[in-house]
Q: What sequence folds into this?
């Protein structure tokens, strides 16, 4: 599925804006160059939320699990170019599933966990998904039943359901867990696949309109242009720790949280649903540097009564805000809390905030003079402005 005209694709390749890289190629590169470095960490309350122990993987382990799952999906009948519906919480499993689809050239369409049977069925039938990856149950809701029910919907092409946490249920054609932990011994099968960065990788459904959601196809190349710009604007790279509470099922979660981490090769800390105490605990424990959120989340963080006593968010040196930036002085419970960040630029609908020069401790973010460490420099973006030094 090529969403862009051949002439346009050729023009962007000739200009160096688009290249021949997939997300899996970045994973392979990181596994080869920093395989023992920590790559991804689940949130600490995953057992309570998903009934599964939190995972902590190196880049070499990420590649091994991705290859194992990719081979498992091929064995389950998923073919290159097939559309696969995915509904999983923000977790290591979601990231591995997405990367496995990229590895085999399948197309992912994603639904956040707040959606139920009508939205699930619409997404599956609208995108002509032939396979699905979903939870068994999550927070008291039976998602496997809802996804399985879409098989009988008018116009549905759904044939295969892969479920997490529902190994003994008849509605699941395959269990996700054994696929993730299989032996990726025959990677030659995967390497032989000719996966193009000009083929659609994601089919994202729009939200916020009064009509039915529309489908927006995007290729690795169309995603990567934005991601390179975000990394250059923020100054983050291989030594950075990325996180954020946006669902990875939407374009924001993919484009400003997950994909920048994959390209940079740093560490990723998953989080969902938003819990201010858990999120602050993760920032403190994992020394998170980069987050993207909305003003309400920043207000919740800055208003936390134990922020100064219990948590340490001084590791944050760039935060993105999907809207107007919080006020520089945040008034809460009769006191004024100075959050120490200044607005330095707006980028593609986001406000990028860096530590102010007058911030307590004199913290300096990348824009104030720290050179970016590990930011890809071999991916040209013609016309892009150089990052301020």
A:
């Amino acid at each position: 599925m090529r969403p862009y005209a051949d002439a346009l694709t050729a023009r962007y390749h000739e200009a160096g804006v688009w290249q021949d890289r997939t997300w899996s190629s970045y994973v392979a590169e990181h596994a080869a160059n920093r395989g023992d470095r920590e790559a991804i960490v689940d949130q600490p309350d995953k057992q309570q939320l998903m009934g599964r122990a939190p995972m902590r993987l190196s880049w070499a382990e990420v590649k091994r699990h991705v290859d194992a799952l990719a081979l498992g999906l091929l064995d389950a009948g998923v073919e290159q170019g097939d559309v696969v519906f995915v509904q999983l919480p923000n977790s290591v499993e979601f990231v591995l599933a997405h990367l496995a689809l990229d590895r085999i050239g399948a197309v992912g369409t994603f639904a956040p966990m707040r959606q139920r049977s009508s939205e699930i069925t619409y997404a599956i039938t609208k995108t002509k998904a032939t396979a699905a990856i979903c939870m068994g149950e999550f927070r008291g809701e039976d998602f496997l039943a809802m996804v399985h029910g879409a098989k009988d919907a008018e116009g549905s092409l759904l044939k295969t359901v892969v479920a997490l946490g529902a190994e003994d249920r008849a509605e699941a054609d395959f269990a996700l867990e054994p696929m993730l932990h299989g032996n990726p011994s025959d990677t030659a099968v995967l390497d032989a696949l000719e996966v193009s960065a000009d083929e659609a990788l994601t089919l994202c459904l729009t939200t916020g309109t009064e009509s039915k959601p529309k489908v927006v196809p995007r290729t690795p190349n169309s995603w990567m242009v934005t991601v390179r710009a975000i990394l250059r604007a923020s100054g983050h790279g291989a030594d950075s720790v990325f996180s954020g509470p946006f669902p990875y099922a939407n374009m924001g979660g993919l484009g400003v949280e997950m994909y920048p981490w994959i390209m940079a090769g740093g560490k990723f800390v998953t989080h969902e649903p938003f819990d201010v105490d858990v999120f602050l605990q993760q920032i403190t424990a994992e020394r998170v540097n980069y987050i993207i959120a909305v003003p309400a989340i920043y207000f919740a963080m800055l208003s936390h009564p134990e922020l100064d006593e219990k948590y340490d968010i001084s590791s944050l040196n760039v935060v993105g805000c999907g809207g107007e930036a919080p006020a520089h002085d945040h008034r809460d419970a009769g006191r004024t809390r100075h959050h120490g960040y200044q607005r330095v630029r707006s980028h593609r609908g986001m406000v990028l905030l860096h530590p102010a020069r007058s911030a307590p401790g004199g913290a300096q973010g990348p824009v104030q003079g720290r050179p970016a460490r590990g930011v890809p420099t071999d991916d040209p973006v013609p016309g892009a402005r150089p990052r301020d030094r």
The mean pLDDT is 86. The first strand starts at residue 38 and ends at 41. Residues 59-75 form the longest helix (17 residues).
